[in-house]
Predict the structure.
Amino acid sequence: MNVLALIPAVTRDKAWIHDQLGGVLGQVADHVPEMAVTYRYLAGLAPHGASCDESDQLVRELEAADLVVIGAPIGHHPVTPALAEWSRRARARKGFGAPLYAMGLNPGLQAWFSQVIRADRTFRYTAQGPQGLLAGKKAIVLAAQMGPWNNTAITDHQVRCIDTQLRFMGIDEIATIASDCQTSPVSNPRRWQSRQGKARQGQALAA
């Protein structure tokens, strides 16, 4: 089995996601006799202005993979000067509110999606609408809740964004594992389930 592991760029204090991602890969290896892993570090990827060669290489890695294992920081962004200033002002005013762009995906992960979602490579246009070209592949998403903006609404939003982009390319066998710095996805795996999903399940049981 060919596995593509997406390694997110995070600050040193958030590097526990790398250890957890390694644990997930180890669990996969326990069930797969022969596994070849390609590691793709997402640091430095740009969503726009990337060279065709870089984009082609990322697409080739994805096309060659049977399984994609994604380290997905939820509610965390690298500290930029603008974000640091916003945080300083929020503390000074004893208030808290997230800037709008913090609701998006981790920049490196979104840059990867922007470069691999390619017409006639990973999807194509049809009379019935876009059709993914990567059917048959599987994905494991490690949704690592890092904060400071890891409330339920933002987690749901970001996880669904990852899910939508994978399915757009035809990858529809997706397992999403929720984790945080206190919970190992290996020793205590937790399937992600949105609040809305839990409500629907409760209604179904009541019916």
